[in-house]
Amino acid sequence: MLTSLTDLWRQQSLYNRRALSIGIVHFGPGRFFRGHLAPIIHKYLAQRGSQEQRWGICGVSLKSRRAINTLEPQGFLYTLIKCSSCALNRDSAEVIGSISQIVDGREDRDYVLDLLTSPSVHLVTLTVTQEGYYLDKSFNLDTANEEIAHDMCNPSTPTTVVGFIVEALRLRRDRGVVPFTTVSCDNLPRNGETLRRAVLTYAELINPELAAYISHNATFSNTVVDRIVPQEHESHHNYPCRLLQVRDRAPIVTEPFWQFVVEDNFRGDRPQWEDTGVIMTKDITPFMCLKYRFLNAVHCFIACLAVRAGIEYVHEALNLPEFQLFIRLMMSDIAAATPVPRQTCEQYMAAVLLRLSNSALPDSIERISSQTSKKVRNHILPILHDAYSRKVSMKRLILPIVAWLLAVREGVSEGGKPYDAKDTLSVVTAIREGAVFSRIMGLENCELQEVVDDECHQAMLVLQTHGILTTLKNYSEGAN
User: Fold this and answer.
1) Among 39, 141, 166, 376, whose Cα sits 20 to 30 Å from the Cα of 191?
2) How far is CA 164 from the centre of its chain?
3) Which of 187, 136, 199 is nearest to 28 (CA)?
């Protein structure tokens, strides 16, 4: 007989949720947050027990009520399931209790601002995706965006996360409350600095004195976040029943591995995250290079090749010998272009390949290939720049991009499987009109332009002549 999550929590609780006070306000309480940061805080609360009751989380949703509607009936409890095809790991499940509540930021704006102004709130964290920052192609705040423009005209009634942060910091200043530290947990290069720049741009336009105050008093920590959390699947609901004998409307299935690297740049109090395995550092750059290049970029490279090959899941691609060898060699090229010790790169590469081969956690190519152009700009172009300056061959680095360009241009995989590119309309239109890669990615008048476009042209001819698997084999045998 199945029991409820709340009953199971009462029987096995590791800390008193009713005694928790809100110390963290989190914007974007989606699946990644519930698979990454919320379990970290849960682990911390479980370790500290009654000694640390001030780090409960209030989630704030600005776009959808889905998380509220699914989690509220079960007291914002949910199960976290870790799955691995490795013989050393077994599927495991636990109930996560660190989220005290989730509210609709637009409907409950005053409540959210009261929370953000409370002296007990020390951290504001975010997983709102790149779209939630309202950035232009240069990663600066897009002040022409309708929602940002609305908030600038109505700063006391914000609707965006940037607007909420600025208004909350204004209220804290006016009430003599120390500013909170803002911690971005989104997949953006130097995410804290990017958010800080957007906040200051916004504040400068509405109140230069407030912008100066924020610049001198508020801190925005950079982070590196890493855990694969696939899209929700109907089968995920079987895990809580099988492993814990409970009903759960919103289980999160993820891999055993996680990483959270945080720049130690805090204005006030924070949890002692180190006790849970979080890496606190003054220099986050090496961690960024490893994660963005060997996970994010490689993920994107695999997806680009897979859409051309008509492959559905990441592990299926890596099961093919042609893919496996090519990806290993391509990662070696990335290592040669990366300013991190080679041995460190190789250790990280081995771990990533093991994780991406996890057949117990099918990760769809459709999910990873979404918004490919942004991922290329964020994670792949820096590799190409470094490869050019270090005289590393770009042949294997360019091939996956060309495979994706062909899939978008033709609208089908090599075998005729339909491919609907989930990308910005301007990018898709440019590709289908035959634009060269440098123009699509804004590399005109760049020293890379000629080399990249030439490599793209050659790769396109080879792919169209020999097909994806033969080309992968040829590029593995003699790309240099």
Assistant:
1) 39
2) 21
3) 187
- Say if residues 279 and 258 touch (Cβ distance below 8 Å): no
The DSSP bridge pattern shows strands 56-61 and 259-263 to be: unpaired
Spatial contact of 92 and 19, defined as CB atoms under 8 Å apart: no
* pLDDT given at position 480: 46
For the question of whether the overall pTM of this predicted structure is more than 0.85, the answer is yes
The 3-state DSSP composition of the chain as helix, strand, coil percent (nearest 5) reads 55, 15, 35
> 148-152 long-range contacts, Cβ below 8 Å, gap at least 24?
148/202, 151/202, 152/202, 152/205, 152/206
H/E stretch holding 456 reads helix 449-466
The whole-chain average pLDDT of the chain stands at 93
Report all structural domains of the chain as residue ranges with CATH numbers, in order of start. 5-282 (3.40.50.720), 286-478 (1.10.1040.10)
DSSP state of 51: G
For 276-324, how does the pLDDT look when each residue is reduced to its tens digit (9 = 90+)? 999 999 999 999 999 999 999 999 999 999 999 999 999 999 999 999 9
Amino acid letter, residue 102: I
At residue 167's C-alpha, the angle toward residues 161 and 173, to 5°, is: 135
144's CB contacts (< 8 A; 6+ apart) are: none
pLDDT at 444: 81
pLDDT for position 45: 94
pLDDT of 12 reads 83
Q: Are 243 and 91 in contact (CB under 8 A)?
A: yes
